[in-house]
Each structure stands twice: as C-alpha cells, then as structure tokens.
Amino acid sequence: MSIIDSFADVKILRYSVGGFEQLSKNQKFLLYYLSEAALWGREILFHQNGGDETILLLRTLDAIYAHQQQNGNLDERLALYAKRVWFCSGVHHHYSNDKFLPEFSREEFHNWLSQVADFEKQTGMSADCAEESLARLIFDKDYKPKKVCLDNGVDLVKSSAVNFYEGISQSDVEQYYKNAGRNALNSKLVCNANGEFEEQVWRIGGMYSDAIERIVENLKRAAQYAENELQRDIINTLIAYYEKGDLSLFDEYNKKWVTEKQSAIDFINGFIEVYSDPLGYKGTWESIVELVDTASSERIRLISENAQWFEDHSPIDAEFRKPQVTGVSMRVVNAVMLAGDCYPATPIGVNLPNAEWIREQFGSKSISLGNITHAHHEAAKSGGVLSEFAYDEDEVRRTRAVGTLADDLHTQLHECLGHGSGRMREGVTLDALKAYGSTLEEARADLFALYFMADEKMIELGIVPSLDVAWAHYDAYLRSGMLVQLARIAEGKNVEESHMRNRLLISKYAIEKGAPVGAVKMIVRDGKHYIKIYDYQALRQIFGELLREVQRIKSTGDYEAARNMVETYGVRIDAELHHEIRERYQKLGIKPFSGFVNPRLHLTDDGDVTIDYTEAYDEQMLRYGRDYKILSCK
Ligand code: ZN
User: Fold this and answer.
1) What is the 8-class DSSP label of residue 143?
2) N or C terminus of the chain: which is more exposed, having fewer CB within 10 Å?
C-alpha cells in the first residue's frame, strides 16, 4: 500500500476492500448501486462549498487538464492547482479552510483556456465568459478568503464562503432558526426579492434536484438487492426523504438505520455533518459504502457490551450521566466507496446519527474504517515523525510495539462510547454552544477515550495486555496535540478546524495543570521542544477533571465557559514553537495530509461486478468529472 500521488501538503493512498471476492452476486450488485448513489452526489459538495462558481471552476480545470494531458503538454502548475481543487472540492484548504492560489498567472490561464477548442461544447459557456466569471475566485486572495470563518467577533455567515445562506446576516439566521424551532440540515436559507426569508430545500423538485434524482434512481436499484427487509425499508425511507425533503423522514430513516445490524453491507448517504457551516445548521453531502469486517469486530463487541459500566463510572457529574445507555454498537468495516465530504480525505471512524434525541432514545451506530486505518499505518511506517518528536528511545519503542492497538482503541472508545455518553439538562439545546460546540463535542469524546483507555477494566476485559497501551497513547496524544499537528497549519495562523482545536485544547490544558504537580512537562533539549510525562496516573486524573467540566458545559449549554475554554486552550499557537515544529517536520519531507482514490467497480457483460485498483488520482477525478457531471454552473 504505497503512496500513489503527492502534491502540495497531500499524499494520495489507495485502500483495498478485503472480503469483496467472497461476496454473493446479490451483495456485489448492492454495493455497486450504493456506490453509484454515492458518486452522483459529488457535485453537490462542490456547490455547497462555493456555489455555481465552484462548479464552473471544476468544469474548466477538467477541460484544460484533459486537453493538455492529451496533447502531452500538461503544465505542472495547472496540474497542481487542479489536483488541489479536486482534493478540497473547491478553492479552500480542506483543513485550514484558507483559500489557496495557483502558481500560474491570469495570462497563462487565458492562453490555456483558449487552446481548448471544444470548451463551449463541454461546459455550455464560452472560454472568455468562463475566464471572466472565474478570475476573482482563482486569483483574488481577498475574495472569499475563508471557507468557514470561526473568528471571534465577526459575522460568521458573511465571512464564510460556503453556500448555505444568501443575503442574510448571522443574527438573522440565528433568529430564524430560533423561531423555526428546529435545525434545517437540508436547505439553503436566502432572503428573496421581497425581503422574505426562504428555505430552498435540497430535494427532488427543489435545489440539487438533478443530482438527487440520480442518487434516488440508484438507491431504487440498490433496494432490489437489499440483504433483508429492514435494509430495504431503510433505503426506501431515505428515498422518500430525498423526494419530499422532509426532515422527519430523515429522522425515520435514522431510527431504522441505527437498529439494522444484521447485514454485511451498510452505507451512509445524505446531508450529514455540520462542520462546514459556521453556525452548525447545514449538512454537507457525503456518502460511505461499507462492507462489515466481522473478524475485527470482537474487541468492539466487548466495549459495547460494557457501555453501561463505562457510563456509570464516568468522572462526570451524576446529573449528566445517562441512566440507560442504549444501542451502543460499533463495527469495523472496510470502505468500498467514499464520496462527497468523505472523499478524498476521509475520516477513520464515524458515529451517526447526529440528532441528539435519536441518539438518546434509539442509540447510535459507530463504524471504524479498518482498511483506511490500515492504509494510514502502512504509509506512516516509512515516516520519521515518531523519532523526531518522541522524547526518547523508550517512547519510540513502546509506540512501535502498541501504537496501532492504542490508536484503534482510542478511535473505538471515542466513536462507540464517547459521543454517545452523557445527557443534556432539560431545556438545553445542542446549538447553545454555537461555533464552539463542535470542538467541545470532539473534546468530550476524546477525553472519554483517554480516561477509560487507562482503566483497569480494559485489562479485566482482555482488551489490552497492560496499561502500557494507554501510556503509549498518552505520549502520542500530547505529542500530536501540542507539537506534531502544528505542522499542518501555516505560520501566523490560528487553529481553526474543530478536531485540531480539540487536540490542542486537551494537550495545552493537561500540560498547564500537570506541570505544577509534576505529571507532565514541556522540555527543551538542543533547541527542540518535547513532551515528557512523569506521572501517567496523575495525567489521567487531569483528563477526568477536564471531561467533567466539558460535559458540564455541554449539558448546561454554558456558552461563556465554552468560549473561554476554547479560546484559552484551543486556538492560539506560540509563534516560535510553531516555527520550530514546521521546520522539524519539513526536514522529514512528509506530507501531513492524506487522501484516497476509490476502487472502480465494473458491471460486467456476464452479469457480475468486478473491482479494479488501477486508477490513478487524476484519472479518477477526470472520470468522475465526465461520468457524474450533473449540476449546472450558471
Ligand atoms: Zn468525533
């Protein structure tokens, strides 16, 4: 499993689908149509990230890239820019949310564009017109500089490039949804010509209808091959939701989906995560098609079966413990197809649904993407990050020995128990923490994992051979949160992304509280910073205390405390430290981000489905651009 492409700060990996060959024809057809339903949503995400302009940019770059490639004169800078736009589904860095600019000039762009003879036929727009429309988006750094802006004290809606609102201020949006009484995951909110607010719902007959029709068409085919009646019903409920756009149908779908645990094939498909909306209302479109890996799911079964024990022993205030933890389940799956906001950069674990009341009443379903994690670990072996940033050889040895297990266990505790634990105080809504909610939610799940990973219960259950697994993870967590992850951020910038903020927050807090009691220290040796943990049990208690406070903040909707905590510990980076880390990292020559190409599924003439792992990154992107072209760009 090697790196198949790399550009900017990104490396592209390939994953393989263990168990595919052993499937029945019926199952392969189910995977095929679910995968088609996944791929047809591709352009929705581009549009959510930046509107018509972004679709036009995609078409234009595809046309120039393909033209130059066919003529054997592909310009490196054009290739770099196109690969980045494909990777980010737009012009903003997928992690930092900052706009990136090309290394070519507008004149060069003009020349390249004019060489594509059939441009107008391909895109429905003349080359001149396209150039004019795209000039600011591509070349003006001040135009839409941020995809998602979470800065303190500015209008987050107006300063974010995402296409979820139009002609509306942050306070109007907040007022609107306060009155509406519930979140609207699947619509754009606009102010129409009469000055009235209007929701453009993402459904058949509404916004994104063309793409959603194709998704539904393929879901209908998939339903014919469902593995059981419940799964068929789940697919049909999702179809009904896409047809009507009614969120209560999406709830229905989720309620059924969390209970379906029998089938070997599962999927996610919809407007789901709200990280790209600065206010956390709107869901970006995503899909993952999965094949369950039954053999790897044993450890997780043990964790799930003991969910109530963990909840009862959680260091949080008794008021916020769930009296009955229901439906906690987690499975290791192999990804078969990644799409929308899960492609090419993909999560390694997912816990859904996001609707808190469904989680509380019906439970949630967690997956760990086994083949994706495996591909990451394989790629990391060739690195050098561990030796550079670990305090000493012992730390390196221990991480090598148990690091993979520790990592997997963390993800499983985070997704399987962490997000699902705790409860809200009555009357407190989830959006009370606004822009700080996502960060603290991730912190809550991480702290739960950190705390319980080091519990004797883990040994008792036979999940870990010794607490060394946890201690290796404590080293790794602080090393990453306080040091290594800073390499991903441009100098002079703050931390923006929720998961990164969360890791910095926990690490900084732990060091601040742990240093005076001798539990952990930041050490400078030969001009380089390291983290040294002296007392792991004491550090565990600090994680427990922080978990208690984060849970209190969430359960009571204490916005002031949330802001204070995130702004104090999770946002700012010491400039000198930042510079040092970036230098040390750059010397290693490693790309900090990863993404994946999908396998290609073929329908064969003799009625079978085959899987193919030969496609290159650009080849795949250009094929998707041709075969799943659906939204209009004007
Ligand atoms: Zn999470």
Assistant:
1) S
2) C
The rounded Å distance from CA 2 to ligand 1 centre is 27
Bond prior to 344 in cis (omega within 30° of 0): yes
Distance 448 CA to ligand 1 centre (A): 11
Cβ atoms of 363 and 420 within 8 Å: the answer is yes
First to last CA, the chain: 41
Helix (H, G, I), strand (E, B) or coil at 314: coil
- Distance (Å) from CA 442 to ligand 1 centroid: 5
> Could you please report the per-residue DSSP string of 338-359?
EEETTSSS--SEEEE---HHHH
pLDDT digits (tens, 9 = 90+) for 445-502: 999 999 999 999 999 999 999 999 999 999 999 999 999 999 989 999 999 999 999 9
Question: Distance between CA 472 and CA 403 in Å, rounded?
Answer: 7
Å from CA of 419 to ligand 1 middle:
7
Beta strands in 526-599 (DSSP E): 528-533, 593-597
Near ion ligand 1, which residues have CB within 5 Å?
Answer: 442, 445
Q: Calculate the alpha carbon distances from 176 to 180, 183, 184, 297, 470 in Å.
A: 6, 10, 11, 44, 46
What 3-state DSSP class applies to 62?
A: helix
Work out the pLDDT band at 205, boundaries 50, 70, 90.
very high
Compute, in angstroms, the gap from residue 125 CA to the centroid of ligand 1: 42
Distance of CA 352 from the midpoint of ligand 1 (Å): 10
* DSSP class of 318: G
Distance 359 CA to ligand 1 centre (A): 14
Angle value at C-alpha 311, between 333 and 332, nearest 5 degrees: 5
Query: How, if at all, do strands 593-597 and 10-14 pair?
Result: parallel
240 vs 253: CA distance, rounded Å: 9
Rounded Cα distance between 51 and 121, Å, is 22
555-607 residue pLDDT tens:
999 999 999 999 999 999 999 999 999 999 999 888 889 999 999 999 999 99
Count Cβ neighbours within 10 Å for each residue of 250-288 and write b for 16 or more, e otherwise. bbbbbbbbbeeeebbbbbbbbbbbbbbbbbbbbbbbbbb
Tokens standing for residue 282: 């709107």
Distance in Å, CA 182 to ligand 1 centroid: 23
Question: What's the gap in Å between 443 CA and the centre of ligand 1?
Answer: 8
Q: How far apart are CA 336 and CA 259, in angstroms?
A: 22
Within 10 A of 171 (CB to CB), how many other CB atoms are there? 10
- Burial category of 423 from C-beta neighbours within 10 Å (exposed 0-12, middle 13-18, buried 19 and up): buried
Pairing of strands 187-191, 593-597: unpaired
The answer to whether 236 and 262 have CB atoms below 8 angstroms apart is no
CB 620 within 8 A of CB 83: no
pTM of the entire predicted model:
0.78
Nearest to 277 by CA among 153, 171, 178, 188: 188
- Distance (Å, rounded) from C-alpha 361 to C-alpha 467? 34
Lowest mean pLDDT among 3-7, 299-303, 555-559: 299-303
445: CA distance to ligand 1 center in Å?
A: 6
- Residue length of the chain: 634
Between the alpha carbon of residue 568 and those of residues 446, 517, 561, 571, the distances in Å are: 18, 21, 10, 7
